[in-house]
Amino acid sequence: MEHNHDTHEACCEAHTLTVEKVAGNLPDEEILYDVAELFKVFGDSTRVRIICALFESEMCVCGIAEVLGMTQSAISHQLRVLKQARLVKYRREGKTVFYSLADAHIKTIFNQAFEHVME
């Protein structure tokens, strides 16, 4: 197929403008890294199950462990990861620590993910 020289030039011009526009609008490398790290945290089904359980109610470690049929130590380990990622927060009541979702963004992210998966 023969290439029309004018069409090729017009394409390259449009291409250059698009590349410049897109490059100028990309977030900082550090932010992109943080977003990728956040998605890594979501990349574990146990952590996803914990987050879904916490949608329903705040809970202590033993409650989460019971709901998910797992050991408290396994849940504690994953809660540490979720705390580090600022996805869960906790409060103490006497000797008991109750965990809950850190903010409403998490619910939004998950609702979007569920919608996407169930399309």
Entry summary:
69% of the residues lie in helices and 12% in strands. The chain is mainly alpha-helical and 119 residues long. The protein has one domain: Arc Repressor Mutant, subunit A (Orthogonal Bundle).
Question: Which key features would you list for this structure?
Answer:
119 residues; Arc Repressor Mutant, subunit A
Report on the architecture of this protein:
The chain is mainly α and 119 residues long. It has a single domain, classed as Winged helix-like DNA-binding domain superfamily/Winged helix DNA-binding domain (Arc Repressor Mutant, subunit A), CATH 1.10.10.10. Helix content is 69%, strand content 12%. It has a 3-stranded antiparallel sheet with strand order 1-3-2. Helix 4 (61-68) crosses helix 5. The longest helix has 21 residues, at 5-25. The chain is elongated, with a radius of gyration of 22 Å. The two termini are 39 Å apart. The model has no long low-confidence stretch (mean pLDDT 91).
* Number of structurally distinct domains: 1
Q: What's the helical proportion of residues?
A: 55-70%
The global form is: elongated
Rg computed from alpha carbons, rounded to a whole number of angstroms: 22 Å
The ordered string of helix (H) and strand (E) elements is HHHEHHEEH
Count of DSSP-assigned helices? 6
- Just give the CATH class: Mainly Alpha
Q: Which residues sit in consecutive blocks of at least 5 with pLDDT less than 50?
A: none
The CATH architecture name reads Orthogonal Bundle
Largest sheet: 3 strands, antiparallel
Mean pLDDT, all residues: 91
Q: How many beta-strand runs?
A: 3
**What is the fold-level CATH name, i.e. the topology?**
Arc Repressor Mutant, subunit A
Give the terminus-to-terminus CA distance. Answer: 39 Å
- Label the structural class: mainly alpha
What name goes with the CATH superfamily?
A: Winged helix-like DNA-binding domain superfamily/Winged helix DNA-binding domain
Strand order of the largest sheet: 1-3-2
